[in-house]
Design the sequence.
């Protein structure tokens, strides 16, 4: 078994590593963006050279029609370079903000870890003090008598419950034969033989004849007893249940008074305050994680050219150079005898090839950046669910010694989704029990100090003294009253049935 707090520490470590991987990948993606920017500057210089050649040709007698003038390229170059010069500072500001958010997260996570250790220490002291109180009460004669009274009441109630169950079965099995007989059922329905019976004389004569035919007066008392016994036993069980609850309440009162006198409740309140402090830190961590994610997304967009100066420069250059395609440049270069413009076109072809390779590397880095950010968001979400479920409680444990290693390995290879990760954690979770001590002190005594959730329950599950031997579904079983609807014949009572 692995304690819940160790699982949380492994989650924390995985999240810290993912943040570091995100930072490293963002550096690589930004380096590719800078190289692409340098190539664009070279491309701009090449276009400037080409424009200078074209300008010389435009002053000659053989000048072809011009597409772009030198003046327009010079203006575009100046504006683009001014914008690109601010890109490095823009990205640096984003990285600085991301680093500050990461530092804040590390500080908060350290505070939470310290507070969690404090809570574990307080709960350990609380458990030791509660155990001492329990041992002291175990030697007290009054407390022993109350325990014995509760045990006796539970035993009597359990025996009565078994008798009531037997009576219900008898009523269903034996009563079915009576209720399946149409003549008997007819007379019972009309209230024959009771003060509620009323009929015209001719019908009374016929009913008397039917009664004699099936010997109704001999069988009706037996049927009434079948109905009456389960009802009386149910009322008896309800009275005994109230006695059990009263005995359990009296025992819990003694335990609460003893816990309070020994200062155990004060330790529990102190542990509750520590639990509340952890919850407050978790809220701060959630807020800081949201800020980190927003900055990380902005940084990702900046290095990929989706926002910021790089995006603006791309837009300006694309607008200015959209008509200067390679085929068009080749066409223009063939109109001259100088080899200089041909060399410029070849350089532009090389630049485009280099930029294509760099852009592919950059796309790969950006895809990795997105995967890191998605994985980081998923693990932070899982950690939030883990904390909300109080799975880091000292009462929480998980099957297996290498659970997190296995889950994180599958998660890193994208074979395990966030939802599947959480379901595996829930399936492996167990609540640590200490020889039934969770029942000590009454129904909801330890809830505030962070008992883990289990299924749909929240807080400390119901664990009163009644559960020691009293069935958990007793109330439901009591309230399911026997049906008086007609049942199929199962043998037993027989009548003529041919009236």
Sequence:
């Amino acid at each position: 078994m692995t304690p819940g707090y160790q699982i949380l520490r492994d989650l924390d470590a995985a999240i810290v590593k993912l943040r570091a991987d995100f930072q490293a990948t963002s550096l690589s993606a930004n380096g590719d963006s800078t190289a692409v920017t340098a190539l664009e500057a070279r491309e701009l210089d090449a276009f400037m050279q080409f424009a200078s050649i074209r300008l010389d040709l435009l002053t000659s007698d053989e000048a072809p029609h011009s597409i772009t003038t030198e003046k327009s390229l010079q203006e575009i170059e100046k504006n683009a370079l001014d914008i690109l010069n601010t890109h490095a500072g823009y990205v640096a500001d984003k990285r600085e903000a991301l680093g500050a958010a990461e530092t804040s997260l590390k500080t908060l996570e350290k505070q939470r870890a310290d507070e969690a250790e404090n809570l574990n220490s307080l709960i350990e002291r609380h458990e030791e003090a509660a155990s001492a109180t329990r041992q002291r009460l175990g030697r007290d004669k009054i407390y022993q008598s109350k325990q014995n009274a509760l045990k006796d009441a539970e035993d009597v109630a359990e025996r009565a419950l078994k008798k009531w169950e037997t009576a219900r079965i008898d009523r269903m099995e034996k009563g079915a034969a009576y209720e399946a007989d149409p003549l008997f059922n007819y007379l019972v329905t009309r209230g024959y033989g009771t003060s509620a019976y009323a009929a015209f004389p001719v019908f009374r004569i016929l009913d008397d004849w039917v009664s004699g035919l099936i010997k109704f007066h001999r069988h009706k008392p037996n049927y009434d007893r079948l109905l009456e016994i389960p009802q009386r036993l149910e009322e008896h069980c309800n009275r005994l249940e109230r006695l059990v609850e009263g005995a359990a309440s009296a025992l819990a009162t003694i335990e609460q008074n003893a816990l309070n006198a020994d200062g155990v409740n004060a330790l529990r309140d102190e542990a509750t305050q520590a639990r509340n402090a952890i919850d407050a830190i978790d809220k701060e961590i959630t807020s800081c994680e949201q800020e980190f994610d927003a900055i990380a997304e902005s940084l990702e967009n900046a290095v990929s050219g989706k926002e910021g100066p790089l995006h603006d420069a791309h837009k300006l250059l694309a607008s200015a150079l959209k008509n200067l395609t390679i085929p068009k440049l080749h066409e223009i270069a063939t109109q001259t005898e100088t080899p200089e413009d041909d060399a410029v076109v070849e350089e532009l072809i090389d630049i485009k090839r280099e930029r294509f390779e760099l852009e592919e590397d950059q796309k790969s880095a950006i895809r990795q950046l997105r995967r890191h950010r998605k994985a980081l968001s998923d693990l932070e979400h899982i950690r939030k669910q883990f904390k909300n479920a109080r799975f880091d409680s000292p009462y929480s444990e998980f099957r297996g010694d290498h659970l997190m290693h296995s889950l994180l390995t599958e998660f890193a290879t994208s074979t395990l989704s966030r939802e599947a990760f959480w379901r595996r954690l829930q399936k492996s979770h167990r609540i640590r029990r200490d020889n039934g001590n969770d029942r000590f002190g009454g129904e909801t005594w330890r809830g505030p100090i962070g008992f883990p959730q289990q299924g749909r329950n929240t807080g400390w599950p119901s664990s009163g003294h009644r559960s020691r031997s009293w069935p958990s579904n007793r109330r439901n079983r009591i309230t399911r009253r026997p049906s008086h609807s007609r049942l199929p014949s199962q043998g037993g009572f027989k009548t003529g049935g041919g009236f």
In short: Confidence is low (pLDDT under 50) at residues 63-70, 455-499. Residues 16 and 55 are 58 Å apart (CA to CA). DSSP finds 14 helices and three strands in the chain.
